[in-house]
Amino acid sequence: MPKKDTKNREAEQLKEQLVRALADYDNFRKRTEREREDLKFVVTARVLSRFLPILDMLYEAQKHLNDSGIALTIKEFEDTLRDEEVEVISPGEGENFNEQLHEAIDTGNKEGLKDGQIINCVLRGWKFKEGLVIRHAKVKVAKQS
């Protein structure tokens, strides 16, 4: 009997080790997947942040020129951003300032607006749908003097 008890204990220990090893492997796999996704966002954000000034110039050119080529280029650019699950941050007048999405670059006084409300968006921002901000929207914020 003692040999059977010893073998049963050894089998239980080996089973527990196997269960722990499988759990460790599963945790490692999940952690690696999360890190890979995080790295994807960082790399994509870095590349996109280099192209956003070009898109800004296209928006500015569109204000001054009635050119369908510029509009088509902007549309293609925006479609590509959408495909990468990137969305614009473009707050309108009267929206509340949100430091997680906006960067105040100026303040002013505008009738009908309270402190902390946005007067206008000077430069669009961009973020991933998951919330990671690539570039904060640059805004002018109301501040009563």
Describe this structure in words.
- With 145 residues, the protein is of the alpha+beta class.
- The protein folds into 2 domains: 1-84; 86-145, Head domain of nucleotide exchange factor GrpE (Nucleotide Exchange Factor Grpe, Chain A, domain 2), CATH 2.30.22.
- 54% of the residues lie in helices and 21% in strands.
- Helix 1 (2-64) runs antiparallel to helix 2 (68-83).
Give a nutshell description of this structure:
This protein is of the alpha+beta class. The chain is 54% helix and 21% strand.
Q: Kindly provide the radius of gyration, computed on alpha-carbon positions and rounded to a whole number of angstroms.
A: 27 Å
Strand order of the largest sheet: 1-4-5
* Count of strand segments: 6
Oligomer: single chain
Largest sheet, in brief, is:
3 strands, antiparallel
**Integer count of domains:** 2
What is the terminal-to-terminal distance? 90 Å
Helical stretch tally: 2
SS strand fraction: 15-25%
Q: Which segments are poorly predicted (pLDDT under 50) over 5 or more consecutive residues?
A: none
Order of helices and strands: HHEEEEEE
Task: Give a topology summary.
Blueprint (H helix, E strand, L loop, with lengths): L1 H63 L3 H16 L2 E4 L12 E7 L9 E6 L1 E4 L4 E3 L1 E6 L3
Parallel strand pairs: 2-6
Antiparallel strand pairs: 1-4, 3-6, 4-5
Helix pairs in contact: 1-2
Quick tags:
single chain; 145 residues; alpha+beta; Nucleotide Exchange Factor Grpe, Chain A, domain 2; 3-stranded mixed β-sheet; 2 helices; 6 strands; 54% helix; elongated
